[in-house]
Amino acid sequence: MEKETGKATKCPYCKSLQVIKRGLRKTEQRGLIQRYSCKDCMRRFIVNDGFKRMRFNPQQVTLCIDAYYRGMSFFKLQGHLEMFYSKSCHQYTILRWIRKFCTRIGRFVDKLKVGTSKRIQVDEMQFKTKGKESWFIDVIDPQTRFVLASGYFRHRGLKEIRGILQECNRKDKEILAVTTDGYMAYRKVVGKTFRAYQKNVHHTIIQALKGEGFVHKIERLHNSIRERTKIMRGFKALHSAKAIMKGWEIFYNFIRVHQAIKKCPYELALPELVLGKNRWLSLIEMSSA
Question: What does the alpha-carbon distance between residue 108 and residue 96 come to, in Å, rounded to a whole number?
């Protein structure tokens, strides 16, 4: 029985653990890949690391995803690949990578149990999708700076806000305090949403127009998002916007070192989660297992 990254290699066809190494598969872009054979069903396979049947190697793919969230455009990324690698790709291919892997990682990290300070901040940002008004709604734990839930929507009504708060509740059912701005929908939704899980959730409303200040931690997060999105001139499609903004949540929580806490937010909220130096690659492999 062979080991793969500390875990027993399992046959994807019959789920048997009676697996042995059986040669190598040579690929043009990804080099030599270990091939396995199952003693029970006698079928041969390679371990799915998230990049199966892809023409580009994992380093190129994750480099492009990371560079995009650090500020490079699709056009510049295409030129970067042409200069430093023997094979380049179309700009739309990079967008497909972002959509594919950010959606996959998002499904994985949304299932993780998160440790929080039991106090959250909720706010929204306005964007444009095909020239029409759209909204990014998010929830952050001000102590760990971890984004507990987020979503990109055409509207910011009761349904959308309730869905985000319910997603937050699935990750932590012991929320004690919620801070929002003065938007009327929060007054209607916060109490009803959390009352189904526990009592005595304190709702603090800060109205900036009345000189009461801002929800500082989440506003700092929004400033970071604006630094990246202000040059994009809006989104072209809603499904792309959802994947790109989910990727930003992943980048903020797991990839980017936060200046205030001197580490990534997941290191405080998910201390048991161990990622490698290439954290994008680690998350893709975990979400594909």
Answer: 19
Question: Is the pLDDT at 198 greater than 70, yes or no?
Answer: no
d(CA 115, CA 178): 16
Name the residue ranges covered by the structural domains of the chain: 3-45, 121-237
Question: Are 7 and 23 contacting, i.e. CB atoms less than 8 angstroms apart?
Answer: no
pLDDT given at position 159: 93
The second-level CATH assignment, the architecture, of 121-237 is 2-Layer Sandwich (3.30)
Q: Rounded distance, CA 214 to CA 193, Å?
A: 23
Q: How many CA atoms lie within 13 A of 284 on its CB side?
A: 24
- Helix (H) or strand (E) run with residue 36 in it: strand 31-38
Name the burial class of residue 124, with classes exposed (0-12), middle (13-18) and buried (19+) by CB atoms within 10 angstroms of its CB: buried
Could you tell me the pTM of the whole model?
Answer: 0.84
Mean pLDDT estimate for the chain? 86
> H or E stretch including 83?
helix 74-84
Could you give the C-alpha distances from 48 to 13, 88, 224, 274, in angstroms and in order?
12, 24, 34, 20
| 134-172 burial code (b ≥16 CB/10 A, e <16) | bbbbbbbbbbbbbbbbbbbbeebeeebbbbbbeebbebb
Contacts of 184 (CB under 8 A, 6+ apart): none
SS3 91: helix
Angle between helices 91-109 and 74-84 in degrees, nearest 10? 110
